[in-house]
Design brief:
The structure is a single chain. The protein is mainly α. 73% of the residues lie in helices and 0% in strands. It has ten helices and no strands. Helix 2 runs parallel beside helix 5, helix 2 runs parallel beside helix 10 and helix 5 runs antiparallel to helix 6. It is globular, with a radius of gyration of 14 Å. It starts with a helix and ends with a helix.
Length: 139
């Protein structure tokens, strides 16, 4: 299973978006998957506030594992990743991607009723993991 498939699989098996993307890459850079899943736990759903998409946050944490000793490089990777994700998906803000604010009860109800967590979110996990994979391994 490759990084992208693993991220989607983790998400579809109950982990939040941030955990799924981060854990898919973590072992490559020396962090056990179990620890990555714990670290990524509070970043899903845009940090529970519908802010930056958790799939993006997971990718950014993976960049930190690889480039965290080089501030300029990690900043460059962060900016490039977010720009690419926005180009492809229209935004990197959770509430914009879902067209609802899942930090509210009404927003969660809307997302559930419209199958956003099962249909749209896996696509965002896949997109974030694909972009991260390309950036990390194709440089």
């Amino acid at each position: 299973m490759n990084y992208v498939e693993e991220a989607v699989d983790l998400f579809e098996n109950g982990y939040v978006c941030s955990q799924a993307v981060f854990a898919a890459f973590s072992e490559e850079f020396g962090l056990p998957k179990e620890q990555a899943l714990k670290i990524g736990a509070c970043f899903g759903s845009g940090m529970r506030k519908a802010e930056v998409c958790g799939a993006c946050t997971g990718a950014l944490m993976a960049f930190g594992l690889k480039y965290g000793d080089d501030k300029a490089k990690s900043n460059e990777m962060c900016e490039t990743f977010l720009d690419r994700f926005r180009e492809i998906n229209g935004s990197y803000i959770c509430r914009d991607l879902l067209n609802c604010d899942i930090s509210t009860k009404e927003g969660v109800e809307y997302a559930v009723e419209n199958n956003l967590f099962k249909e749209l979110c896996p696509k965002m996990v896949e997109s974030a993991a694909e972009i991260a994979k390309d950036m990390i391994f194709d440089e």
